[in-house]
Amino acid sequence: MKHFEANSPFARDIAAVLHPHTNVRAHLEKGPEIFTRGKGLFVYDEDGREYFDAAAGLWCASLGFGVERLAQVAYDAMKNLGYYQIFRGASHSAAIELSERLLALTPCPMSKVLLQCSGSEANDTAVKLVWYYWNAVDKPEKRKIISRKGSYHGSTTIDVCLTGKPEFHAGFGLPFPGFLYTDMPYYYRHHVDGESEEQFSQRLADSLEQLILEEGPETIAAFWADPVVGGSGAVLPPKGYFEKVQAILRKYDILFVADEVICGFGRTGNMWGSQTFSLTPDIITCAKALSAAMQPISAVLINDRIFEGMKIQSDRNGRFVHGFTYAGHPVAAAVAIETLKIYDEIDMIGHVKAMEPIFLGGLGALKDHPLVGDVAGCGLIAGVEVVADKKTRAMFPASVGLPAKLEANALKQDLILRHVGNRLAFSPALIITEAEINDLVSRVKALLDLTLAEVS
């Protein structure tokens, strides 16, 4: 129930709040859905209605909502050192311990950790470090960056250039020159009849190499990829894809940046998506589950090659001139440390591995539904492809308004999930139980049945 009283949160929101990823004009009439609390996998609105959040907020509430242990840690940290910066050699114990813990967890050898405040900040910073490195080794012409169509890497001006989704560029005069986009590894949607996953991967690798040769390998600085493409609805790489891509990057001396903002800390069934898909990046960016979303914090992990370049540039320029006021915030760092401790104590990776076959099996059973063309996932992240024709993989025309129908029918099941066009994405809190998975699958089947009745 919406409240239009002048002093209600609903009316005050319309008067004051500008919402991301929201139609500005429509919001003035529809208004917000105001949430007041959360517990476990569930959130509650101002009227007490309970919702099953199958997206863990924005892929990030890995320990669920309302984690009192982390709240207590934040309170204690705030009392002790409510804020301090890490500029000009200043430090504090939380920044040190968190960085040490992250280096101990890395999927491949890393040298240093640069703490930041968000996934967007981490990716934006990583772009600067890529350019910083190539300038350090006297190859400033290596400046172009390749990412992938359909990818999402953040909302800063530079991150949106990394993002391979035209709707993120529209109206902003973006992207800037020098950002290139290769094919998205979306086997189900883009393979040709009779093409195996390995053949599809080889075709995409050949396309990437052709792009590099056309642009000039001496101009390409880095390749950006998230292990699972979250921006297109949890799309997994096909067999052989990253093996072939990494060989090309090594061939032309192109840095590899793994965006682990969504995939890091257990989401794919390992601590890192890089472990799940055998990646050896030069730089890793991470955020979200680093603090179980209880505090805004992120990190950029760099290998020794990048750090050696940073030392050269720091000597040339007198110092490394980069930083954010709240980077390495002692409260956020303390919460992140405690989050990592919790993961270890409850064997979060073991739990995800135990739930994975139940989760993927439950969603996989939906492939028999008339609207479902494909289900793919790993760990506790998955995508369900909704199609008009299972045989041809044809999608519904825009006039059908499928995304709006899917969202509305999900809410009828008191279910919150992410949808990217015709694809449903699932990333529940990593603490999900077998009973909750069964509950989730039941709600998804119900929303699909409602949608089928509307489009038939």
TrEMBL record:
Assigned keywords, A-Z: Aminotransferase, Pyridoxal phosphate, Transferase
GO MF entries: pyridoxal phosphate binding; transaminase activity
Gene3D superfamilies: Aspartate Aminotransferase, domain 1 (3.90.1150.10), Type I PLP-dependent aspartate aminotransferase-like (Major domain) (3.40.640.10)
PROSITE patterns, A to Z: AA_TRANSFER_CLASS_3 (PS00600)
Record-linked Pfam families: Aminotran_3
Cofactor field: pyridoxal 5'-phosphate
InterPro entries for this protein: Aminotrans_3 (IPR005814), Aminotrans_3_PPA_site (IPR049704), PyrdxlP-dep_Trfase (IPR015424), PyrdxlP-dep_Trfase_major (IPR015421), PyrdxlP-dep_Trfase_small (IPR015422)
NCBIfam families assigned to the protein according to its UniProt record, in alphabetical order: PRK06105.1
Family listed: Belongs to the class-III pyridoxal-phosphate-dependent aminotransferase family.
Protein name in UniProt: Aspartate aminotransferase family protein
The species this protein was found in: Ancylobacter defluvii
